[in-house]
From TrEMBL:
UniProt keyword terms in alphabetical order: Membrane, Transmembrane, Transmembrane helix
Protein name per its UniProtKB record: ABC-2 family transporter
Signal peptide: none
Top-level lineage group: Bacteria
Membrane-spanning segments: 21-43, 63-83, 104-130, 150-175, 187-207, 227-250
Protein backbone atom coordinates (compact mmCIF):
# COMPACT_ATOMS: atom_id res chain seq x y z
CA UNK A 1 0.00 0.00 0.00
CA UNK A 2 1.10 3.60 -0.64
CA UNK A 3 1.49 5.56 2.57
CA UNK A 4 -0.98 8.44 2.76
CA UNK A 5 1.82 10.80 3.70
CA UNK A 6 3.78 9.97 0.55
CA UNK A 7 0.73 10.62 -1.63
CA UNK A 8 0.10 13.91 0.16
CA UNK A 9 3.70 14.91 -0.46
CA UNK A 10 3.34 14.11 -4.16
CA UNK A 11 0.14 16.17 -4.31
CA UNK A 12 1.89 19.09 -2.62
CA UNK A 13 4.66 18.97 -5.21
CA UNK A 14 2.15 18.64 -8.06
CA UNK A 15 -0.07 21.50 -6.92
CA UNK A 16 2.87 23.80 -6.22
CA UNK A 17 4.03 23.70 -9.84
CA UNK A 18 2.09 26.16 -11.94
CA UNK A 19 2.66 24.26 -15.19
CA UNK A 20 0.94 21.11 -13.94
CA UNK A 21 -2.12 22.97 -12.69
CA UNK A 22 -2.38 25.01 -15.90
CA UNK A 23 -1.99 21.88 -17.98
CA UNK A 24 -4.78 20.14 -16.04
CA UNK A 25 -7.12 23.05 -16.80
CA UNK A 26 -5.91 23.11 -20.41
CA UNK A 27 -6.96 19.48 -20.87
CA UNK A 28 -10.54 20.34 -19.93
CA UNK A 29 -10.64 23.62 -21.87
CA UNK A 30 -9.10 22.10 -25.00
CA UNK A 31 -11.55 19.20 -24.82
CA UNK A 32 -14.51 21.56 -24.92
CA UNK A 33 -12.96 23.64 -27.69
CA UNK A 34 -12.12 20.70 -29.93
CA UNK A 35 -15.52 19.13 -29.31
CA UNK A 36 -17.20 22.30 -30.57
CA UNK A 37 -14.75 22.88 -33.44
CA UNK A 38 -14.90 19.41 -34.98
CA UNK A 39 -18.65 19.12 -34.49
CA UNK A 40 -19.20 22.50 -36.14
CA UNK A 41 -17.11 21.43 -39.13
CA UNK A 42 -18.93 18.10 -39.33
CA UNK A 43 -22.35 19.75 -39.16
CA UNK A 44 -21.50 21.99 -42.10
CA UNK A 45 -20.27 18.96 -44.06
CA UNK A 46 -23.45 17.07 -43.19
CA UNK A 47 -25.61 19.90 -44.52
CA UNK A 48 -24.12 19.48 -48.01
CA UNK A 49 -23.54 15.71 -47.89
CA UNK A 50 -25.06 13.16 -50.23
CA UNK A 51 -27.68 10.69 -49.07
CA UNK A 52 -25.08 7.92 -48.69
CA UNK A 53 -22.70 10.21 -46.81
CA UNK A 54 -25.48 11.10 -44.40
CA UNK A 55 -26.15 7.42 -43.76
CA UNK A 56 -22.45 6.90 -43.01
CA UNK A 57 -22.25 9.89 -40.64
CA UNK A 58 -20.97 8.92 -37.16
CA UNK A 59 -21.64 11.53 -34.44
CA UNK A 60 -19.08 9.98 -32.09
CA UNK A 61 -16.27 10.62 -34.58
CA UNK A 62 -16.29 14.26 -33.53
CA UNK A 63 -15.37 13.21 -29.98
CA UNK A 64 -12.73 10.84 -31.30
CA UNK A 65 -11.01 13.57 -33.32
CA UNK A 66 -10.76 15.78 -30.27
CA UNK A 67 -9.38 12.96 -28.14
CA UNK A 68 -6.55 12.40 -30.64
CA UNK A 69 -5.33 15.95 -29.97
CA UNK A 70 -6.06 16.25 -26.25
CA UNK A 71 -4.09 13.04 -25.63
CA UNK A 72 -0.92 15.08 -26.16
CA UNK A 73 -1.81 17.31 -23.21
CA UNK A 74 -2.75 14.51 -20.82
CA UNK A 75 0.47 12.66 -21.65
CA UNK A 76 2.49 15.84 -21.05
CA UNK A 77 0.84 16.10 -17.64
CA UNK A 78 2.28 12.71 -16.72
CA UNK A 79 5.68 13.75 -18.06
CA UNK A 80 5.75 16.80 -15.79
CA UNK A 81 5.02 14.72 -12.69
CA UNK A 82 8.31 12.92 -13.31
CA UNK A 83 10.57 15.56 -14.83
CA UNK A 84 9.66 18.46 -12.53
CA UNK A 85 11.79 16.92 -9.78
CA UNK A 86 14.78 16.57 -12.08
CA UNK A 87 14.48 20.20 -13.11
CA UNK A 88 14.03 21.55 -9.59
CA UNK A 89 16.66 19.33 -7.99
CA UNK A 90 14.24 17.94 -5.39
CA UNK A 91 14.61 14.30 -6.35
CA UNK A 92 17.39 13.64 -3.82
CA UNK A 93 15.42 15.01 -0.85
CA UNK A 94 12.31 13.12 -2.02
CA UNK A 95 14.22 9.85 -2.08
CA UNK A 96 15.69 10.57 1.34
CA UNK A 97 12.26 11.32 2.77
CA UNK A 98 10.53 8.28 1.28
CA UNK A 99 13.37 5.87 1.86
CA UNK A 100 12.51 3.36 -0.85
CA UNK A 101 12.66 4.05 -4.57
CA UNK A 102 9.79 1.68 -5.31
CA UNK A 103 7.54 3.58 -2.90
CA UNK A 104 8.33 6.89 -4.62
CA UNK A 105 7.59 5.52 -8.09
CA UNK A 106 4.34 3.93 -6.93
CA UNK A 107 3.33 7.16 -5.20
CA UNK A 108 3.98 9.16 -8.37
CA UNK A 109 1.98 6.68 -10.42
CA UNK A 110 -0.86 6.72 -7.90
CA UNK A 111 -0.96 10.50 -7.74
CA UNK A 112 -0.83 10.75 -11.54
CA UNK A 113 -3.80 8.39 -11.85
CA UNK A 114 -5.76 10.16 -9.10
CA UNK A 115 -5.30 13.51 -10.87
CA UNK A 116 -5.59 12.35 -14.48
CA UNK A 117 -8.79 10.36 -14.00
CA UNK A 118 -11.06 13.20 -12.80
CA UNK A 119 -9.44 15.62 -15.25
CA UNK A 120 -10.12 13.10 -18.03
CA UNK A 121 -13.71 12.54 -16.92
CA UNK A 122 -14.33 16.29 -16.99
CA UNK A 123 -12.55 16.76 -20.32
CA UNK A 124 -14.19 13.92 -22.21
CA UNK A 125 -17.56 14.69 -20.68
CA UNK A 126 -17.31 18.32 -21.82
CA UNK A 127 -16.07 17.24 -25.25
CA UNK A 128 -19.03 14.91 -25.66
CA UNK A 129 -21.60 17.49 -24.54
CA UNK A 130 -20.24 20.34 -26.68
CA UNK A 131 -19.90 18.15 -29.76
CA UNK A 132 -23.34 16.57 -29.55
CA UNK A 133 -25.12 19.82 -28.64
CA UNK A 134 -23.41 21.52 -31.59
CA UNK A 135 -24.48 18.75 -33.96
CA UNK A 136 -28.06 18.83 -32.67
CA UNK A 137 -28.27 22.63 -32.93
CA UNK A 138 -27.33 22.47 -36.61
CA UNK A 139 -29.64 19.61 -37.54
CA UNK A 140 -27.05 16.84 -37.75
CA UNK A 141 -27.43 13.41 -36.10
CA UNK A 142 -26.26 13.28 -32.49
CA UNK A 143 -26.03 10.89 -29.56
CA UNK A 144 -27.51 11.05 -26.09
CA UNK A 145 -25.33 10.05 -23.09
CA UNK A 146 -27.38 6.89 -22.58
CA UNK A 147 -26.65 5.57 -26.08
CA UNK A 148 -24.45 2.42 -25.82
CA UNK A 149 -21.68 3.90 -28.01
CA UNK A 150 -21.74 7.17 -26.10
CA UNK A 151 -21.73 5.38 -22.75
CA UNK A 152 -18.69 3.35 -23.77
CA UNK A 153 -16.80 6.50 -24.76
CA UNK A 154 -17.76 8.32 -21.57
CA UNK A 155 -16.75 5.42 -19.33
CA UNK A 156 -13.72 3.97 -21.11
CA UNK A 157 -12.35 7.19 -22.63
CA UNK A 158 -11.17 8.63 -19.28
CA UNK A 159 -9.46 5.32 -18.46
CA UNK A 160 -7.56 5.48 -21.77
CA UNK A 161 -6.55 9.07 -21.03
CA UNK A 162 -5.39 8.08 -17.54
CA UNK A 163 -3.26 5.30 -19.01
CA UNK A 164 -1.71 7.81 -21.42
CA UNK A 165 -0.86 10.07 -18.47
CA UNK A 166 0.87 7.07 -16.87
CA UNK A 167 2.68 6.50 -20.16
CA UNK A 168 3.91 10.10 -19.96
CA UNK A 169 5.07 9.54 -16.38
CA UNK A 170 7.07 6.44 -17.38
CA UNK A 171 8.61 8.27 -20.33
CA UNK A 172 9.56 11.17 -18.06
CA UNK A 173 11.29 8.80 -15.66
CA UNK A 174 13.14 7.16 -18.55
CA UNK A 175 14.30 10.33 -20.33
CA UNK A 176 14.49 12.65 -17.29
CA UNK A 177 13.94 15.77 -19.37
CA UNK A 178 10.64 17.55 -20.06
CA UNK A 179 11.36 18.65 -23.63
CA UNK A 180 12.74 15.29 -24.72
CA UNK A 181 9.92 13.31 -23.10
CA UNK A 182 7.15 15.55 -24.48
CA UNK A 183 8.64 15.43 -27.98
CA UNK A 184 8.96 11.65 -27.92
CA UNK A 185 5.47 11.14 -26.46
CA UNK A 186 3.87 13.49 -29.00
CA UNK A 187 5.57 11.74 -31.91
CA UNK A 188 4.61 8.33 -30.57
CA UNK A 189 0.97 9.25 -29.90
CA UNK A 190 0.47 10.88 -33.30
CA UNK A 191 1.56 7.81 -35.28
CA UNK A 192 -2.02 6.47 -35.66
CA UNK A 193 -3.10 9.92 -36.89
CA UNK A 194 -0.39 9.77 -39.57
CA UNK A 195 -1.29 6.20 -40.55
CA UNK A 196 -3.15 7.19 -43.78
CA UNK A 197 0.06 8.52 -45.34
CA UNK A 198 1.77 5.13 -45.04
CA UNK A 199 1.32 2.05 -47.27
CA UNK A 200 -1.82 0.02 -46.55
CA UNK A 201 -0.06 -2.72 -44.59
CA UNK A 202 1.74 -0.28 -42.30
CA UNK A 203 -1.35 1.90 -41.99
CA UNK A 204 -3.45 -1.06 -40.83
CA UNK A 205 -0.72 -2.10 -38.42
CA UNK A 206 -0.63 1.36 -36.85
CA UNK A 207 -4.39 1.79 -36.54
CA UNK A 208 -4.96 -1.73 -35.20
CA UNK A 209 -1.96 -2.55 -33.01
CA UNK A 210 -0.31 0.75 -32.05
CA UNK A 211 -1.01 1.03 -28.29
CA UNK A 212 -2.87 4.32 -28.10
CA UNK A 213 -4.61 3.72 -31.44
CA UNK A 214 -5.81 0.35 -30.15
CA UNK A 215 -7.07 2.01 -26.98
CA UNK A 216 -9.08 4.60 -28.90
CA UNK A 217 -10.46 1.94 -31.21
CA UNK A 218 -11.72 0.07 -28.14
CA UNK A 219 -13.47 3.27 -27.02
CA UNK A 220 -15.39 3.50 -30.30
CA UNK A 221 -15.91 -0.28 -30.76
CA UNK A 222 -14.43 0.02 -34.26
CA UNK A 223 -11.38 -2.18 -33.82
CA UNK A 224 -10.61 -5.16 -36.02
CA UNK A 225 -9.70 -6.87 -32.75
CA UNK A 226 -12.04 -7.68 -29.84
CA UNK A 227 -12.37 -4.51 -27.71
CA UNK A 228 -10.89 -6.28 -24.69
CA UNK A 229 -7.78 -7.19 -26.67
CA UNK A 230 -7.44 -3.69 -28.11
CA UNK A 231 -7.68 -2.18 -24.65
CA UNK A 232 -5.31 -4.85 -23.31
CA UNK A 233 -2.63 -3.79 -25.81
CA UNK A 234 -2.59 -0.32 -24.26
CA UNK A 235 -2.62 -1.64 -20.70
CA UNK A 236 0.21 -4.06 -21.43
CA UNK A 237 2.28 -1.40 -23.15
CA UNK A 238 1.94 1.02 -20.23
CA UNK A 239 2.85 -1.76 -17.80
CA UNK A 240 6.01 -2.57 -19.78
CA UNK A 241 6.92 1.13 -19.87
CA UNK A 242 6.62 1.35 -16.09
CA UNK A 243 8.75 -1.74 -15.57
CA UNK A 244 11.44 -0.21 -17.78
CA UNK A 245 11.14 3.17 -16.03
CA UNK A 246 11.43 1.65 -12.57
CA UNK A 247 14.42 -0.47 -13.59
CA UNK A 248 16.24 2.61 -14.87
CA UNK A 249 15.19 4.68 -11.88
CA UNK A 250 16.39 2.05 -9.42
CA UNK A 251 19.76 1.56 -11.06
CA UNK A 252 20.83 5.00 -12.25
CA UNK A 253 19.31 7.77 -10.16
CA UNK A 254 21.16 9.24 -7.23
Amino acid sequence: MIATGVLKAEWTKFSSIRATMVLSLAVVAASGFFGWTFANMAAHEYATASAQERLDFLPLDQVMRGMLLVQLLISALGVLVATSEYGSGTLGPSLAAVGRRSRLVIAKAGMTALVALPVSVAGIGLMFVTSQVTLAAQGAPYLMPGDPDALLALLLGPVVFTLLALFGLALGLLLRGTAAAVNVSSTFLLMPVLAPIFPDFLSRLLTTYWPNGAGFRAVTSRSDLPPVLSFGLLVGFVAVMHIAAFTRFARRDA
